[in-house]
Design goal:
alpha/beta; 53% helix
């Protein structure tokens, strides 16, 4: 009977998701760029010499070193770079194309200036703005002010947006010669376009790389036939800026190299400073360019084995990645190297990099290596599925879980995991069936019991949920999550004194008191960007919730923190979980004041 039910559910899984393409060819991490350069303005007195070439050269760099598909780059130059065309491509093309996990780059080379602030959000009374091809000296509505540009940006789907400006501090003045609208101050201002964008865009995942500081000029160079910033930006795509020698140029490496070269050159050439700036709200470092593999490749197997020995004995994760990447670039079809890199990146929460190496593994036809690694690693399909779950792509996760079940229908843990995917898609009935299959296969495991417990708790089937937590407690009374719910049930539902003792034991042993101390610390106000103190505190609270996702008090703390500090944070998921986890001991005053 069990075998028949298993087969039935595998068929159910396949019917549900095999309508998709059986093989996944598109990469999860796509790259899109909107590249803008204006040299010849509609009003010719404002023309620049090399802004158009800046844009063209930057597009070439994206194609040559950035792994960009030409179809994924929109190039707007001179008369194509009208205000309306820029808006349509930001609010239309880029917003539609660049999904949550994709990279979006916006590059602008042209004039910047200031206009009178009309909404009172500027300390100096002036709004910073970019000048499109068709701007009119007498009409403020024809420029792109910081508030409007920020509005266009914050509506993008992508959580990795890099904006690069090669114009005077992105606001205060034009390159070399001042540009002003009629009746408006055209000299360099004290305010800052990039900081205004940060203030106006209430989300993480944005980085702004600007050619100069707020009170500096951005120069063009006849010698280089580019803006000086763009010249050294492109020049920095070399081994000189590849600080960890892994053939990858990340955002920080690109910034430090470009800043140093631009600053040194302008000091020497013009006796003035032009210092590029970076405001980076992207949590993980961003890989931008990929250098060609060195001509001196590692091909000798003894040399590879020697490096692998060093890798196994290296304690530093960064150095370990460095050595593995060195071998990988010499032997990209090495199953073991791809597997180790994928595992390390997964442990660092760099899921897209991990997926890239898992995709390499799937394409490698080495049955001996596959067999050896399968003896001590989770199946490749399961590893893939877990990563897609973490990225929120449940359909792809179910696709890989179903493949894993098809290959090995007796693996109980796979049924637990695919059940989570069905729960994410609100298919509770199928999830419960899969969890029961898992329990029938291996009765002495905690995970399926806890998932079933939460399902019945959400439905307020307390009799069933408590019977489940009793079984889980009998299997392992030392599991913290099980102990917590067993204690809560005894204290608040059965009103037994043993519940108090068990809760005290839980708090002493699980580390919650230490976590409370951590999130209540007062952090220094050494601001790297606006509101870093509150942003950092919020991150600490979220990390604590990740460690104790069942403890309702931490959700309560986060909800109060966000609302008391007027932070722009989506609380829907946290509120939903708080209401579930506080069912046995609800704080009605808190719910009334903060949730209703």
């Amino acid at each position: 009977m069990k075998a028949i039910l298993t087969l039935t559910l595998i068929i159910l899984v396949n019917i549900t998701i095999w309508g998709q393409s059986e093989t996944i060819t598109a990469t999860v991490y796509n790259r899109y760029a909107l590249v803008i350069g204006v040299s010849s303005y509609e009003e010719s007195s404002n023309d620049l010499r090399y802004a158009k070439k800046d844009a063209s050269d930057f597009q070439d760099a994206l194609l040559k070193f950035g792994r960009f598909n030409k179809d994924n780059i929109k190039l707007l130059m001179d008369k194509d770079a009208t205000r309306e065309n820029i808006r349509k491509n930001l609010e239309g093309w880029l917003k539609t194309k660049a999904k949550k996990n994709d990279l979006a780059i916006i590059f602008f080379s042209g004039h910047g200036t200031q206009v009178i602030d009309t909404d009172g959000d500027e300390d100096d009374g002036l709004d910073e703005c970019l000048l499109p091809y068709d701007f009119d000296n007498e009409d403020y509505s024809t420029v792109i002010i910081d508030d409007v540009f920020a509005y266009w940006i914050k509506n993008l789907q992508s959580e990795k947006v890099l904006i690069i400006f090669d114009n005077c501090y992105s606001g205060g003045a034009a390159k070399q010669k001042g540009v002003s609208l009629k009746g408006v101050k055209g000299n360099i201002g004290k305010d800052d376009f990039t900081k205004d964008i940060v203030r106006e865009v209430p989300r993480k995942g944005t980085a702004l790389f600007s050619a100069s500081k707020a009170d500096q000029v951005s120069f063009e160079s006849k010698e280089f036939q580019n803006g000086i910033f763009t010249h050294f930006l492109l020049k920095s795509i070399s081994s000189i800026s590849d600080n960890n020698f892994n053939n990858i140029i990340n955002l920080n490496e690109l910034y430090y190299s470009t800043r140093q070269k631009t600053l040194e050159y302008t000091k020497d050439k013009f006796k003035k400073e032009q210092e590029p700036t970076l405001i980076n709200l992207i949590e993980n470092d961003l890989d931008i360019f990929y250098l060609p593999v060195s001509e001196k490749e590692i091909t000798d197997s003894k040399e590879i084995e020697a490096l692998m020995y060093k890798v196994r004995n290296e304690k530093s994760i960064a150095k370990k990645i460095e050595m593995l990447e060195e071998i990988y670039y010499s032997d990209p079809n090495n199953y073991r190297i791809n597997s180790e890199l994928a595992e390390i990146y997964e442990s660092k929460n760099e899921y897209l990099k991990a997926i890239e190496h898992y995709q390499n593994i799937i394409s490698i036809k080495n049955e001996k290596e596959v067999f050896i690694l399968s003896l001590w690693l989770p199946p490749i399909d399961v590893r893939f599925a877990k990563l897609y779950m973490k990225l929120g792509q449940t359909d792809l996760a179910m696709l890989y879980y179903s493949k894993a079940i098809e290959k090995k229908p007796s693996n109980a843990s796979t049924y637990n995991e695919i059940a989570q995917a069905y729960l994410s898609n609100k298919d509770t009935l199928t999830a419960v069936q899969l969890l029961n299959i898992s329990i029938n296969m291996t009765p002495y495991q905690i995970e399926p019991y806890l998932t079933l417990f939460y399902i019945h708790m959400a439905n307020e089937d307390y009799e069933v949920s408590f019977d489940i937590i009793n079984k889980s407690y009998l299997i392992n009374p030392f599991d913290f999550e099980t102990l917590y719910w067993y204690a809560m049930k005894e204290k608040f539902f059965n009103h037994k004194l043993i519940g108090d003792s068990l809760l005290l034991s839980f708090k002493e042993k699980c580390g919650i008191n230490k976590s409370w101390t951590e999130i209540n610390k007062t952090y220094s106000s050494n601001l790297r960007f606006l509101n870093q103190e509150t942003e950092y505190q919020l991150l600490v609270i979220k990390n604590t919730i990740n460690n104790y996702p069942y403890y309702d008090e931490f959700y309560k703390y986060l909800i109060k923190f966000v609302k008391d500090n007027n932070l722009s944070e989506n609380l829907d998921g946290y509120i939903k979980k708080y209401l579930l986890y506080s069912k046995l001991n609800p704080d009605h005053t808190f719910i009334e004041n903060y949730i209703k």
